[in-house]
Design a protein that fits this description.
The complex is a heterodimer of chains A (75) and B (193).
Chain A (H helix, E strand, L loop, with lengths): L2 H9 L8 H16 L4 H4 L1 H7 L3 H14 L7
Helix pairs in contact in A: 2-4, 2-5
Chain B lengths: L1 H5 L6 H22 L6 H5 L1 H18 L10 H21 L23 H16 L3 H12 L4 H7 L4 H21 L8
Classes of the chains: A mainly alpha (75), B mainly alpha (193).
C-alpha cells in the first residue's frame, strides 16, 4: 500500500455518494446495465460513485453482477 | 409475470413463492461459493444453514417490498440483490463470530507506510490523527477507528452496535468529511485525495 493509498483510505470521499441504502435501491438497475455492456458510470452514476467508496456494497455488487451476467459459451 | 403470480390472490401464488425461494437459495449458494476462498473453516461448515437463512429472509424482503418493484430492471435481478445482501452480511458476521472488536493504540502505527512517510505525508497523517481527537464526535471516532484503522467490516460493527450498514457507512463518510476540512484548514488541501 502506497502513501497515496493510505491517504485514500483515511480521507477519500465521493461527492455524489448517495450512501448504502440508496445504492442498494438501484443496485439491480446498475447490475442489469453493466451486464448488458454499459459502463457502470452510465448505467447508474450514483451507484458507481458509492461502489468506489464502500467495500461491502462493492463486494455485493460483484456478486450480483456475477449472478446476472450470462456465462460466455464454451469456445 | 413474477409480480402477478406472487400476488396473494393469484391461483399460482404458492408455486410462485416456492419458485422464488428456490431462485433466492440458488443465488445465495452461488454467492457463498464465489466467496469460498476467503471464508474461514467455521463459516464453511455452516454454509448450507447460512444460505437457507439468507434465502428465507430474502424471500420475506422481496414479498414485503413487491410494491416497490418498478420494472426498471429484470425482476430476478431485483430479487437477487436481496439474496446477495442477506448472504454477504451473514458471511461477514459469521466470520467474526466469537472475535472481540478491540481498538488498540498501535492501530495507527500499523497503517502501511506510516513509519517511512515523507514530511508532507507525515504532516497530513498528523493532522488526521489530531482531527480524530479534536473534531470527531465520540461516536464518529469509534466508528472511524474501527472501520478504517482496524478494518473491521461495516456489517460486523453494525451488528455489534445494533445499527445497520447504511448508518455506519454514513458515520464514516461524515467523519472523513470533517477530517478533510481539518486538513484543508491547516493548508494541506493539495494533499487531499
Amino acid at each position: 500500500m502506497t502513501h497515496d493509498d493510505v491517504r485514500h483510505r483515511l480521507l477519500h470521499v465521493e461527492a455524489a455518494d448517495p450512501g448504502c441504502d440508496a445504492c442498494l435501491a438501484r443496485l439491480d438497475v446498475w447490475a442489469d446495465g453493466v451486464a448488458s455492456g454499459l459502463p457502470g458510470e452510465v448505467a447508474e452514476p450514483t451507484v458507481a460513485a458509492h461502489l468506489r467508496s464502500c467495500a461491502a456494497c462493492s463486494e455485493d455488487a460483484e456478486g450480483l453482477l456475477a449472478l446476472v451476467t450470462p456465462e460466455a459459451p464454451d469456445s | 409475470m413474477w409480480v402477478q403470480r406472487l400476488d396473494a390472490g393469484h391461483p399460482d401464488h404458492d408455486r410462485a413463492v416456492a419458485g422464488l425461494h428456490g431462485l433466492l437459495l440458488g443465488g445465495a449458494r452461488k454467492e457463498a461459493h464465489r466467496r469460498l476462498g476467503s471464508l474461514p473453516d467455521a463459516v464453511r461448515a455452516d454454509l448450507d444453514d447460512l444460505c437457507l437463512q439468507a434465502a428465507n429472509d430474502a424471500l420475506q424482503a422481496v414479498v414485503g417490498k413487491l410494491d416497490d418493484f418498478r420494472g426498471d430492471s429484470r425482476f430476478t435481478t431485483w430479487a437477487y440483490k436481496f439474496a446477495i445482501f442477506e448472504i454477504s452480511t451473514r458471511l461477514r458476521r459469521h466470520a467474526w463470530r466469537g472475535q472481540r472488536v478491540e481498538l488498540d493504540d498501535d492501530a495507527w502505527d500499523r497503517l502501511p507506510g506510516v513509519r517511512d512517510a515523507g514530511a508532507e505525508q507525515r504532516a497530513v497523517l498528523g493532522l488526521v490523527r489530531q482531527g480524530m481527537d479534536e473534531v470527531l464526535s465520540d461516536r464518529q471516532r469509534l466508528v472511524f477507528s474501527t472501520v478504517v484503522l482496524e478494518e473491521v467490516p461495516i456489517d460486523v460493527l453494525a451488528e455489534r452496535l445494533s445499527s445497520n450498514r447504511g448508518a455506519i457507512y454514513k458515520t464514516v463518510h461524515d467523519a472523513r468529511r470533517k477530517l478533510r476540512a481539518h486538513v484543508e484548514a491547516a493548508g494541506y488541501a493539495e494533499y487531499l485525495p
